[in-house]
Design goal:
Elements: E1 2-4, H1 9-13, E2 20-22, E3 29-33, E4 39-46, E5 52-59, H2 66-81, H3 86-94, H4 99-111, H5 125-143, H6 153-164, E6 170-173, E7 180-183, H7 187-206, H8 232-247, H9 252-264, H10 268-272, E8 279-280, E9 285-291, E10 294-299, H11 302-309, H12 331-341, H13 350-363, H14 368-375, H15 392-408
Parallel strand pairs: 1-2
Antiparallel strand pairs: 2-3, 3-4, 4-5, 6-7, 8-9, 9-10
Helix pairs in contact: 4-5, 5-7, 6-7, 8-12, 9-11, 9-13, 13-14
């Protein structure tokens, strides 16, 4: 039986088994007695997506009196008007009592595209793989069993120092054949993992799982920038390594990707994911639709174009994997094999090409905006969104830096000179 009155103590005491009474003062606020003697205060509401929800405020008795429950109903309706969904948050809270469970909820929503980056886009699959690894290797071992509500700022600081000191360092097999995971920890890993924890607890706040973010205000270690650049001798060693690797049976697409990295300064992920549809060799321009900084327009030197023309595969990827479909996720291992041919130091990584390219451009006298445009750094002007090809100034700069790179590597530079039809600036 359903009635409508202003809910008070008398109405609660006379409520019969299975009956519900609705309040006349606050719309959709009611009290319901089940088959037992217990009476619960309830609230019906609709979300911003027009979904109907039933939220149980609590059972009658301390602290829930009719007046206290009525005030809570008003508060909840106010939060719903601002886009909250308390019933869903309550459900999530029940399923995220531990930090480990919270991590699982976060990654489930992230993979479904419901967790957005600062650019208001879902996280990339490659980023999620790295984030999940950090959660499994660092967060869950140290904090996984702790209750989400119990984590304080001091807990986060202790966690950060534990990772920095190598307490989560380990070696173990992965699910892949002959796969080996080496977890070292260190200050860089600690800083980046605390950043991930900040995102996870921000998600917890948004879902109503806890009221605050304990990561906020934690002072992290400086995330050291990788400023390593190749010396002239090392450039020569890279050139020798590439020549010997070509004769040594290394996957040709991997060698081509290494050469392309050297003459462009791109990120390795951008290279192994480069598609034929993103390249216009006539205009010597690449338009990358989804990079770390969003859509990016890159000038292509003649040397870079020559490398791309050599890729004769049938698929859309210019630098395909050696087995199966998809991008060349094993490029770091291929690079290590290439580096062995030149006896390169362990710290000569694919990212070192990026900084070395930018440093060479600076040595040649190019400005920071020009260098940023060459390698796809954030900061291009808003008008560049409407430009679909690189201008003559950028193409000349790309040729100059690529030719200097080839010269240092002991390879023949391109001799072609670009005629300037009009002046242009970045």
């Amino acid at each position: 039986m359903t009635k409508k009155k202003r809910i008070g103590i008398r109405e609660i005491s006379t409520l019969s088994s299975g009956a519900t009474i609705w309040d006349t003062e606050v719309s959709c606020f009611g009290a319901r007695r089940q088959k037992s003697e217990a009476v619960s205060y309830i609230l019906f509401y609709r979300t911003a997506e027009n979904r109907q929800r039933l939220h149980t405020i609590g059972r009658h008795g301390a602290p829930w009196t009719p007046e206290a429950a009525r005030k809570e109903a008003k508060r909840i309706l106010g939060s719903v008007a601002n886009g909250a969904d308390p019933a869903e948050a309550k459900k999530a809270k029940r399923h995220a009592e531990s930090v480990s469970e919270l991590c699982d909820l976060y990654f489930a929503d992230a993979k479904a595209g419901r967790v957005l980056t600062r650019r208001k886009k879902p996280k990339k699959a490659s980023t999620l793989v790295t984030d999940e690894s950090r959660a499994e290797r660092h967060i869950k071992p140290l904090l996984g069993r702790r209750a989400v509500s119990s984590i304080s700022r001091s807990d986060i600081e202790s966690f950060m120092h534990s990772v920095a000191e190598g307490k989560t360092a380990t070696r173990g097999k992965t699910g892949k054949k002959r796969g080996l995971a080496i977890v070292r920890g260190g200050k860089g890993a600690a800083t980046r993992t605390v950043g991930l924890l900040g995102a996870i607890f921000t998600y917890a706040v948004r879902r109503g799982i806890r009221a605050d973010n304990p990561v906020r205000g934690v002072e992290r270690f400086a995330d050291g920038q990788r400023l390593r650049r190749l010396s002239e001798d090392e450039y020569g060693a890279v050139g020798r390594a590439i020549r010997l690797a070509t004769e040594g049976g290394i996957w040709p697409a991997a060698i081509a990707a290494a050469r392309f990295l050297a003459v462009t300064g791109w990120r390795s992920g951008e290279v192994v994911g480069l598609k034929r549809t993103e390249v216009d060799l006539t205009r010597r321009t690449a338009i990358l639709g989804d990079t770390k900084t969003g859509q990016s327009i890159r000038p292509l030197s003649h040397a870079a174009c020559d490398i791309l023309r050599e890729q004769k595969g049938e698929g859309d990827l210019l630098f395909p994997a050696s087995k199966g479909e998809g991008s060349m996720t094993g490029f770091p291992k291929f690079w290590n094999k290439i580096a062995e041919f030149g006896a390169l130091r362990d710290d000569v990584t694919p990212h070192v090409f990026r900084h070395s390219f930018a440093s060479l451009a600076n040595d040649l006298g190019y400005s920071e905006p020009t260098i940023a445009a060459l390698i796809g750094h954030k900061g291009r002007s808003i008008t560049s969104r409407y430009v679909h090809s690189a201008d003559a100034v950028l193409l000349a700069a790309a040729d100059a830096v690529a030719n200097r790179t080839l010269e240092l590597m002991g390879m023949a530079p391109m001799a072609q000179v670009i005629e300037f039809r009009q002046a242009a600036s970045i």
